[in-house]
Write a structure and sequence with these properties.
With 132 residues, the protein is mainly α. Helices cover 75% and strands 0% of the residues. It is elongated.
């Protein structure tokens, strides 16, 4: 009755999907991404799976990008890069790196080390109060 969190919308979308009301399920999931509070992992996974099933590659990548950059880690970075082809990665890489500024210092360090961007690593270490 009261939809507030991502899981609320996910539960309702799943219910509609399982009862054959697929368009309503997708509508509810998209509405949840716009309005819900808290964790959106399940909603994004639900919509990503539907986009992949329908062959909508661009929507699939957009949802996966949002998921990867929500709390960006090296693991997420690698996973997203793996699902992209060369051209897709070229399109998303700069966007992903812009999101890197908002992530934790330790994860930024790991990603820059992975990318062999040692000047960025040094900059982060100098600015961080308690380097690891």
């Amino acid at each position: 009755m009261k939809m507030e969190y991502g899981l609320d919308y996910y539960d309702l979308a799943t219910f509609y999907w399982e009862t054959g009301k697929k368009e309503k399920a997708i509508e509810i999931a998209k509405k949840g991404l716009k309005k819900a509070k808290g964790r959106m992992d399940e909603l994004r996974s639900f919509l990503a799976k539907r986009a992949k099933e329908s062959g909508n590659r661009s929507q699939y990548l957009e949802i996966q990008f949002a998921q990867a950059t929500d709390m960006l880690t090296l693991k997420d970075y690698k996973a997203f890069k793996k699902i992209c082809n060369k051209n897709e990665w070229a399109d998303y890489e700069l966007q992903l790196l812009k999101k890197l500024e908002k992530t934790w210092d330790t994860e930024r360090l790991k990603i820059h080390l992975f990318r062999k961007e040692y000047d960025q690593v040094l900059t982060i270490l100098i600015k961080t109060r308690f380097p690891n």
